[in-house]
């Protein structure tokens, strides 16, 4: 059973930085495809960044150049470094894992579909003030 636990959320001012972490417990973590999503009340959960087991990454357009996804397989931890934060980044952030897919290009409907990921963390809140 895969368990994911996020941490690192909090408050920041616009232009500031936060780093989110997602600790995983599970088998063969290094082969998992991992992603960050976010959600605001009344809105659908949207994909923010993805990293596959080979280290390939992709990002939501609005966070490119500001956010960086990374992973430490030895620590079984996924990270999201968020710089130049904007009020629009305010959301609950979730990490997600897919143990069955090697590359996110394999998804026929795109990596940002929530249905691709069977495992989710509980979420961590990020609030960015202007």
Describe, in plain words, how this protein is organized in 3D.
The structure is a single chain. This protein is mainly β and 130 residues long. The protein has no helices and 11 strands. The strands form 2 sheets. Strands 2, 4, 5, 6, 9, 10 and 11 form a 7-stranded mixed β-sheet that branches. Strand 5 (46-51) and strand 6 (57-59) form a beta hairpin. The termini are far apart.
End-to-end span in angstroms? 40 Å
Low-confidence stretches: none
Helix percentage: under 10%
- Rough outline: globular
**What's the number of helices?**
0
List the helices and strands and how they pair.
Layout: E1 3-7, E2 10-13, E3 18-25, E4 33-39, E5 46-51, E6 57-59, E7 67-72, E8 77-82, E9 91-98, E10 119-120, E11 124-129
Name the descriptors.
130 residues, mainly beta, 7-stranded mixed β-sheet, 4-stranded antiparallel β-sheet, 11 strands, 0% helix, 47% strand, globular
Please sum up the structure shown:
This protein is mainly beta and 130 residues long. The protein has strands spanning 3-7, 10-13, 18-25, 33-39, 46-51, 57-59, 67-72, 77-82, 91-98, 119-120, 124-129.
């Amino acid at each position: 059973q895969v368990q994911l636990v996020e941490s690192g959320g909090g408050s920041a001012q616009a232009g500031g930085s936060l780093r989110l972490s997602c600790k995983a417990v599970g088998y063969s973590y290094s082969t998992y495809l991992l992603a960050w999503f976010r959600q605001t009340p009344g809105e659908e959960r949207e994909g923010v960044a993805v990293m596959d087991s080979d280290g390939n990454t992709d990002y939501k357009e609005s966070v490119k150049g500001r956010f960086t996804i990374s992973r430490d397989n030895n620590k079984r931890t996924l990270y999201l470094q968020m710089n130049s934060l904007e009020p629009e980044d305010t959301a609950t952030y979730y990490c997600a894992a897919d143990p069955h897919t090697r590359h996110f290009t394999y998804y026929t409907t795109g990596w940002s579909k929530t249905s691709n990921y069977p495992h989710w963390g509980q979420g961590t809140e990020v609030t960015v003030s202007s």
